[in-house]
Task: inverse folding
């Protein structure tokens, strides 16, 4: 059986970290980017840095070339998770269908409102986002062999992670459902979540199932709640 391999390409950060008593933006937020490979299939999860920076990190962290990336998966349509998606024009872009539908509904409404207010600059930005969204396809339940969708709604309506199954452990790329190690240790979700109660439920589910957690804005975590090496 072929099991997935994964590599952290870039470690993300929050623009405002309330666990550090921050009340306003202190830095440019971006998500953690992960490469998942199964055979000749190579998947980038959350291409968060600008294209040039992301490709530089890819070159630093792996021998995989940009043209070898066959799929891109977004855990949400948050702009901080997708800045570098244009670096992979030949890949299939994927996202959980619920998130696709929710993002489309929100963007189309905001676009209409911007046009009604005659704010053409803002309308143009929404049009650019809609063009990206229209290129993204609904992700199948099984994205690659032993790489499955793991819905984690709450941070956004259709937030969704990827569950990687190995012989003796599971790895969950969870996006902002668990933002960082500090959030895991304190059992806290993002206060900016679309639905905090749902986000708390998703947080609990993620923490219970995964031996290794790839959070939304931090390096990978060996889950302290599970005996990874037993």
Result:
């Amino acid at each position: 059986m072929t099991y997935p391999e994964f590599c952290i390409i870039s470690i993300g950060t929050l623009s405002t970290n309330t666990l550090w008593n921050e009340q306003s933006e202190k830095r440019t937020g971006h998500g953690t980017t992960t490469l998942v490979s199964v055979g000749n299939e190579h998947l980038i999860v959350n291409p968060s840095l600008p294209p040039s920076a992301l490709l530089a990190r890819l070159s630093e962290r792996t021998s995989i070339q940009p043209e070898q990336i066959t799929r891109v998966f977004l855990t949400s349509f948050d702009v901080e998770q997708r800045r570098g998606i244009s670096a992979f024009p030949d890949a299939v872009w994927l996202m959980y269908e619920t998130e696709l539908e929710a993002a489309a509904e929100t963007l189309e409404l905001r676009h209409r409102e911007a046009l009604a207010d005659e704010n053409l600059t803002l309308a143009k930005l929404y049009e650019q986002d809609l063009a990206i969204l229209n290129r993204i396809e609904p992700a199948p339940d099984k994205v690659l062999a032993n790489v499955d969708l793991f819905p984690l709604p709450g941070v956004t309506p259709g937030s969704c992670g990827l569950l990687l199954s190995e012989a003796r452990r599971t790895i969950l790329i969870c996006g902002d459902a668990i933002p960082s190690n500090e959030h895991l240790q304190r059992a806290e979700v993002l206060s900016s979540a679309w639905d905090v109660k749902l986000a708390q439920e998703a947080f609990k589910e993620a923490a219970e199932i995964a031996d290794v957690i790839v959070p939304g804005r931090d390096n990978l975590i060996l889950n302290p709640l599970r005996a990874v090496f037993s």
The chain has five helices and twelve strands. The helical segments are 51-61, 97-116, 120-135, 181-186, 196-209. The first strand starts at residue 5 and ends at 10. Residues 5-222 form a domain with the Metallo-beta-lactamase; Chain A fold (CATH 3.60.15.10).
